[in-house]
Amino acid sequence: MAEYELYCFAQSGNAYRAALMLNLIGADWKPVFVDFFGKAVQRTPEYRGEINEMGEAPVLVHGDKKLSQSGVILTYLARRSGKYLPRGEDEGLEALRWIIFDNQKVNGFLGPYRFLRNWVKPAANPAIHAFFRGRIDGNLAIVNKRLEGRNFLLGERPTIADISLAGYLFYPIEEFGFDIGKDHPAIAEWRERIKVLPGWAHPYDLMPGHPMPQT
Ligand SMILES: N[C@@H](CCC(=O)N[C@@H](CS)C(=O)NCC(=O)O)C(=O)O
Question: Atom 2 (ligand 1): residue with closest C-alpha?
Answer without folding.
Answer: 69
